[in-house]
Amino acid sequence: RLLHQKSVTSLAVLEDGKIEILEFAVAGDAPVLGTQLKDIRFPQNALVATILRGEQVIVPAGSDELHAGDSVIIIAGSDCLEAVQRLFQR
């Protein structure tokens, strides 16, 4: 279901569908813009693994912020994918 949306550019499924790795494009009106990662209330089963900003690959720390146009690699339980997507898209 998520793969058919513009914001998801790739998908991998692990552990018989219990864990998914997704790449989201961060929208210009995303709720997470301008907020440090440590202050974002991610679902318990979600982790920001990588931020892609142009040619730069960022291993995220709590003080990093997301910019419009970034792509983020998320590792998440399949039970929280929609909640994660709402953070990156309006």
Account of the protein in words:
With 90 residues, the chain is mainly β. The protein is 9% helix and 36% strand. The protein has one helix and five strands; from the N terminus they run βββββα. A five-stranded antiparallel sheet has the order 1-2-5-3-4, with helices on one face. The two termini are 17 Å apart. Residues 1-6 have low confidence and may be disordered.
Short précis:
The protein is mainly beta and about 90 residues long. It is about 10% helix and about 35% strand. Mean pLDDT is about 80; it is low at about 1-5.
Write a concise keyword list for the protein shown above.
90 residues, mainly beta, 5-stranded antiparallel sheet, 1 helix, disordered N terminus
Structural class: mainly beta
Unreliable stretches, pLDDT < 50, 5 or more residues?
1-6
Give average pLDDT, whole number.
82
Helix fraction bin:
under 10%
Instruction: Tally the helices.
Output: 1
DSSP, total strands: 5
Strand order of the largest sheet: 1-2-5-3-4
Instruction: Tell me what portion of residues adopts beta-strand conformation.
Output: 35-45%
Biggest sheet character? 5 strands, antiparallel
Name the shape in a single word: globular
C-alpha-based Rg, rounded = 12 Å
Helix/strand order: EEEEEH
Spatial gap, N to C terminus: 17 Å
Helix-strand layout with pairing:
Elements: E1 8-14, E2 19-25, E3 46-53, E4 56-58, E5 71-77, H1 81-88
Antiparallel strand pairs: 1-2, 2-5, 3-4, 3-5
